[in-house]
Amino acid sequence: MSKLRSLSPRTARIRRAVIAGVAVVAASGLLSACGYGSQAASNSSGGSVVPSSGSSGPALSASTVRIGYFANLTHATPLIGIQDGQFAKNLGGTKISTQIFNAGPSEIEALNSGAIDIAWVGPAPAINGYVKSNGAALKIISGATSGGAELVVNPATIKTVADLKGKKIATPQAGNTQDVALFNYLASKGYKENPKTGAGDVSVIRTDNSTTPSAYTSGQIDGAWVPEPTASKLVAEGAKILIDERTLWPQGQFVSTNVVVSQTFLKAHPDVVKAVLKASVDTNAWILANPAKAQQEANTALTALTGKGLSAKVLKAAWSEMTVTDDPLASSLTTEAQHAVTAGFITQPNLSGIYDLTLLNQVLTAEGKPAVSAAGLGAQ
What is the reported pLDDT for 285? Predict the structure, then answer.
């Protein structure tokens, strides 16, 4: 308790909430594969119920909402908002059950199986989940993060893109957003790759983000296309950024994290979904207004979830690579889908109706903020 007393009241509340949530983590069964037709390993921590943090009021139409996200800075909104109590405040008596994942394919499988209701996830797995279900599984209901992904490499052996040939490059999981980005980029440079096995001119090694830094320092991999803070952790170990993904996009903006919901849950509990979106919008506003405090609070949550926080240097570098946003940047989703086609993961998809921004725009309008666009891919 002495450590908590030395923290700010807000940070102390977060740490107590995170520790309480982690203390009740239960083992979960393995989930089946879902990565763009390849065998995608299940990487999740199991569920935990976050305390109400003093929130009051009756439960909404669901007694519990089950939310999935990653222990990544690109998922700063749930990292901060759930553990800080902002989500509980908006949900009243409805409890929050959380599950932590390493990458999107296994998270989408959890959504499809009914293990979670709402998820913060990258665009590639969201596209895959929508296409494979013929548009029945999920809807993208909000943006979350833009940027926050880089290809970082060993500068002793890789100085240019041409040096990638014959090297081992890691991604978080087969079919996840960074995996698709790497395969698309390699294809654009003429490299021949097998998206299912990772074999080719460049060997793609699917590696859990938590073990990627040790794989790099031990020489098992020569680099990685990964989200933050993993990329900045590698840089701290001597790696160099070969490609900042923002440089590949107009105005440096692309969706790296969306919020998705099971269509079944959306239809049955729109009030709960709207409350989650209200909490997300409010949390994002606080993050943008308080970047220094937000970094520290995200780090507090990461410490509890992973057992080790980020150094000040890594935290600052990683945070500078990304920004939170309510806008799903829908125009970039079509490009993301084309990347998956180019990389050989999917055939040309029909994304019509993948977005349902109705509830988000209601929240934004009520707060005097401009509505966001589905770029012609909205609910029909």
Answer: 98
3-state secondary structure of 41: coil
Which pLDDT score is estimated for 31?
30
Quick one: which H or E segment has residue 363? Answer: helix 358-366
Looking at the structure, tell me whether residues 339 and 315 fall in a common domain.
Answer: yes
> pTM of the entire structure?
0.86
| Segment (H or E) for 44 | strand 44-50
Are 112 and 15 within one domain? Answer: yes
Kindly give the pairing relationship between strand 223-227 and strand 168-171.
parallel
b/e string for 256-268 if b means 16 or more Cβ within 10 A? Answer: bbbbbbbbebbee
Burial class (CB in 10 A: 0-12, 13-18, 19+), 39: middle
Looking at residue 57, its pLDDT comes to: 66
Enter the tokens of residue 260. 């998705």
The reply to whether 108 and 216 lie within a common domain is no
Low-confidence residues in the chain, pLDDT < 50: 1-9, 11-43, 49, 51-54
| pLDDT of res. 58 | 72
β-sheet bridge partners, residue 227: 149
**Does one domain contain both 199 and 247?**
yes
Quote the pLDDT of residue 379: 76
Q: Final residue of a domain: which of 252, 286, 309? A: 252
Residue with tokens 């991604």: 171
Distance CA 46, CA 27 (A): 5
pLDDT for res 77: 98
Please state, in angstroms and as integers, the Cα–Cα distance from residue 79 to each residue in 19, 47, 265, 319, 353, following that order.
13, 15, 22, 14, 29
Q: Residue 227's pLDDT is what?
A: 95
Q: Cα–Cα distances in Å, from 337 out to 31, 151, 153, 195? A: 24, 20, 26, 15
Contact 244, 150 (CB under 8 A): yes
- CB atoms closer than 10 angstroms to residue 282: 18
> Domain boundary at 220, 252, 284, which?
252
Q: Which domain holds residue 28?
A: 2-147+254-366
Please name which of 79, 76, 23, 16 lies closest in space to residue 52, comparing C-alpha atoms. 16
Place of tokens 């009030």: 271
Separation CA 165–CA 329 (nearest Å): 33
Residues 6+ apart with CB under 8 A from 301: 14, 18, 71, 79, 80, 83
